[in-house]
Every structure is written in C-alpha cells, then in structure tokens.
C-alpha cells in the first residue's frame, strides 16, 4: 500500500504543479470509501500533507481505513465525516485536485449509491473550467472493473493511477471514456501472463501488417474481392475498393452494379468474378437488392467450402450463414449487432448493446463462430479463445458516413495479405482486426490532425499512415 500511496501522491503533486505552478499550498480533497481504495487515498494524502499540501478527507462511509486515517491525521490532515452532501460538494469544489478513492476493485455491481452517489452525481454535473482536476485511485469509483459497465453515477477522471496492471474496465466501453490518462504503477505483483483485454499499440499493428517479401507478386500478395454498393449507394463501393487498393494489396476485384464508377475512381480495380484470397461483403448493399444478395450468398458458399477469410459488413450481416469460421469478421455498429442478436433469438435493443458492448460482442461470437468487431468510440474485437481487444485511437471526427466502408476495405486487404496465416491460426484474426481498427483511427488523424475528416480523406491517408507505422516500428 505504501508504494501505491507514494505513486499516487506523485501523480497528484504533478497535477498540482501543472495547475498552480507549485505543490506547496495546493488544496487536495480526498473522497474516501470504506475499503483499501480509500486507504490508498488516505495514505497518499499523508504523503502530500508532509509536502505542504492542504489535505481534507471526506469520509463517505461509516468506517474508513483505520491506518490510513491515522496516518493522515498524524501528518496534520483533516477528516470530515460526510453527513450533509451540500457541505461536501462545497468542500470538494474548493479543491485543486480531487482524489477519487471511494471504490476500487472491491466494488460490487450496482454502482455508487446513497450519499457517495449523490455527491458524485453533483460533482460530475459541474465540471466547468475552474473545476478541480480529478485523479482516480486504481479505477474511477463504481465502474464495472471486469466488464467496463456503468450502472450508476461515476466521477469522470482526468487521470487514473492504477496499481499492478491495467484492468479490463479501464479500457472497455462504456467506462473507458471515464478513465482519462491511464498510469499503471508496477507494484511487483505476480499477474496472469495474458491480460484479459488487450489494446494494441502502433508497433503491434506494424508487426501484424502484411509486408510483401522481395519475391512477392500480385497473387502472392493477395486478391481481395469486394461485393459492395448499388446504383442507390455507389459511394460505398468506391470507398471500400479504394481503401483496399490504398492499404496495399495484390489486386482488388469488384462485384456489383457500379463497376463503371469504381473504375473511374480507382482504375486499379478489376471488375468481375475470379479467384480471391479474402472477401469484403456488404458496404452499401441494401436488403432489397436481389442481385447483390445473390452474389454474396454465392460467395459465402466459397467461404464455407474453401475457407477464404471475409469481412461481413452492413447489408451482408443479414445474409450470414448460421455458423462460420473465426476468420470471418463481422463489423457491425451497435444497431446492427442488436439486429443480428435479435434475429438469433436474443432480443436486445441498440441501447442494451451500447450499455453492454463486451457481453453483446461475446454473445455474437459464441452464436456465429465469427470474430466480431463492434464499432464505436472504443472499437471492441472478440475472437477465438476469448481474445478481447479494445482500440481507442480514433478521433471522434471519424464518426462520419462512409468511414465503416473504408474500415471494411482496409481489413479485407489485411486479411487477403495474411489469408494463409489467419486460416492456420484462428487467434490471429482478432489481432488483425484490432490492428485494422488502429490503422483506421491513425489514418483519420493523418488525414487532418485535430479537425474534421471525410471517409475519402481517411482512405487517401492510408499509404502514408502505413508507411509511418512501419518506419517507426
Ligand atoms: N488487491 C491488491 O492487490 C491491491 C489493492 N490495492 C488497493 O485496494 C483496493 C481494493 O480494496 P478493497 O478490496 O478493500 O475494495 P474497495 O474497492 O476499496 O471497496 C471495498 C469496500 O467497498 C464496499 N463496497 C463495494 N461495493 C460497494 C458499493 N457499490 N456501494 C457501497 N459500498 C460498496 C465493500 O463493502 P462490502 O462488499 O464488504 O459490503 C467494501 O467495504 C484497490 O482498488 C486498490 O486501490 C492496492 O493498494 C495495492 C494492491
Ligand atoms: K477509485
């Protein structure tokens, strides 16, 4: 606990310096719950008090950590037992830094209730310019530590100082956006070899990228077949094929009614059937488009018999066979996933999927066998062997029409380039899908850092994004 408290105090001191230029004389208010999480906050408070910080602990439970309380009092800090939420709100708002030590990994389901819940709700509703910086101890209090669920009020952290190793709830939606900057403090604890949820970094994505060898030719590099678009939605076909071409693949075949438009925009694309190493089904395909449905259904037979990897997006999700291999990747958003699950006898709404994205994606994986990439502010991928990836590199600007078509084309190109590998190693597909999500987000940044992006702009930024990723690895 001592090491945890020192690291936490250090993080709070850095926030004080950033806000006021110095640590001495800063005001820190600790929100303290009943367990060891509150104990960490109290011990850190004692360290800060000895560095000349004014520290007040608001005790939000009948009992708080005895040793921590004694340490803070001995260092000259104050402890106020909260029985009036108005007074607590007032004290908390006067802080430079608020330390959230209400609950950590011992939190039961159901979130914060009672006085602590009321206090947090009010503090979170008043986060204006001058509001205190919030540092969460181990986790923002009250999140579902193992599944990222949010079932009650949570104080959104600017920084979370977590101990031993990251926790799934810190990177999984919907709680992930409450974490702020994540700082992991190594306490030398023995941890499981494989973390439960993985977030790929740039170098991981670079390692997964299908880089051609010196003797590569277009067929060894992979051909991706794209069944997308219609007269009514020609843009989706252009975007998906463009992304596949620009991500770097041996060849792109297009099947559909707008081949003329696709070739006008991307002369590299070959129109018409032929052998492929991977498929992209569905962008811009509507359920009433009989010709495209037939093409997709026919191609699915190939997927089931020959075993080509495939990306199943948008309109093709409804055509998914009952069970498919793991190297088939579904790329729904929450609404599409709700429909897919409901069609398979698990009635859920879009809102329920948004509330429980991990549970929903897992269920879809179990029901279909496919790897499931659930699009969102944090993109989740669930694949073989229970692998879970949570990628959050994408700027919010990427939530724009056509962005999903680009992701589908990009992922199709990656799967075509690594077709043999993903068929051989079922766990690889989820990693490749997570890498595609990372590259997609990076390309959005590259296309216009910090500003609005277009789907076409994201596709056009792919070559530069991939080059930089490989160069830095
Ligand atoms: N373990 C380690 O390796 C290390 C752990 N460390 C630290 O310890 C923290 C974990 O401490 P912890 O186990 O004492 O749990 P914590 O989160 O403080 O809360 C438990 C208390 O809260 C109560 N309670 C629960 N849910 C509630 C709710 N919804 N509403 C109201 N009350 C609720 C619960 O009550 P009960 O369930 O017993 O009735 C119990 O009294 C961890 O996050 C980290 O900070 C690090 O210092 C070093 C390494
Ligand atoms: K906490």
From TrEMBL:
SUPFAM superfamilies: Ribokinase-like, YjeF N-terminal domain-like. Residues 201-469 form the YjeF C-terminal domain. Its cofactor is K(+); Mg(2+). (6S)-NADPHX binds at residues 236, 284, 333, 405. Binds 1 potassium ion per subunit. InterPro entries: Carbohydrate_kinase_pred_CS (IPR017953), CARKD (IPR000631), Nnr (IPR030677), Ribokinase-like (IPR029056), YjeF_N_dom (IPR004443), YjeF_N_dom_sf (IPR036652). Residues 1-195 form the YjeF N-terminal domain. The keyword Acetylation does not apply. AMP binds at residues 375-379, 404. Keywords: ATP-binding, Isomerase, Lyase, Metal-binding, Multifunctional enzyme, NAD, NADP, Nucleotide-binding, Potassium. One of its GO terms (molecular function) is ATP binding. Homotetramer. This is ADP-dependent (S)-NAD(P)H-hydrate dehydratase.
